[in-house]
Design brief:
The chain is α+β, with helices and mostly antiparallel strands. It has 2 domains: 101 residues, Orthogonal Bundle (Peroxidase, domain 1), CATH 1.10.520.20; 72 residues, Glutaredoxin (3-Layer(aba) Sandwich), CATH 3.40.30. 63% of the residues lie in helices and 16% in strands. The protein is built from 8 helices and 4 strands. The protein has a 4-stranded mixed β-sheet, with helices on both faces. Strand 3 and strand 4 form a beta hairpin. Helix 1 packs antiparallel against helix 2 and helix 2 runs antiparallel to helix 6. The longest helix is centred in the first third of the chain and has 21 residues. It is globular and about 55 Å long. The two termini are 30 Å apart. The model has no long low-confidence stretch (mean pLDDT 90).
């Protein structure tokens, strides 16, 4: 996974720079998410992994699928990724592009996992605290993860705040082993 992220970074940065210059940030976001969905499809993944499918055929298949969704720059990106054997990086490119877009718009995405649904007042309180801490607008996504037992697991950018019962038990177990 880390290797894909490393390979994806220069592509994501280049695409984002193009998008900012052309003032079509949202269009590129949609294009990359569309391509990521295609690449993550199990049938398409099998075609990509098949060594009998040559680059030209693979590029033609992807361009046919994306013909109505991709402009010339999007089609060129597909060709470059096919030529460089980097198609599996597309989901990572899309993810990193979204992170660059959030930075550009001064937003930070926050994922909150909780054993139980997060109530709106709790979410508003967390949002206010994080806005004050990061000095950015906060986009919160909540998920239910029963394995946490209680508390929250918060991921904000590259920072993790683990205030879950599961995390505390793991921390205690680690301390006991020391």
């Amino acid at each position: 996974m880390a290797e894909l992220a490393t390979f994806a970074r220069p592509y994501a940065e280049a695409v984002f720079e193009l998008a900012v210059d052309a003032d079509n940030i949202e269009e590129w976001s949609n294009n990359l998410n569309f391509l990521a969905a295609i690449i993550e499809d199990s049938t398409m993944a099998a075609v990509i992994a098949n060594p009998k499918v040559n680059k030209n055929t693979l590029a033609r298949i992807l361009l046919d699928i994306g013909n109505d969704h991709l402009d010339e720059l999007g089609k060129n990106l597909v060709k470059i990724l096919v030529d460089n054997h980097r198609l599996p990086t597309i989901p990572q490119i899309a993810l990193q592009y979204e992170q660059l877009k959030a930075q550009h718009y001064q937003h930070i995405k926050v994922d909150i996992s909780s054993a139980y649904p997060v109530e709106p007042p709790q979410q508003q309180e967390i949002e206010a605290i994080l806005q004050k801490h990061y000095h950015k607008a906060i986009d919160i996504n909540t998920h239910i993860d029963k394995s946490l037992l209680g508390g929250w697991f918060i991921r904000a950018g590259d920072q993790v705040i683990d205030i879950s019962v599961k995390g505390r038990i793991q921390q205690l177990a680690s301390e006991l082993r020391s």
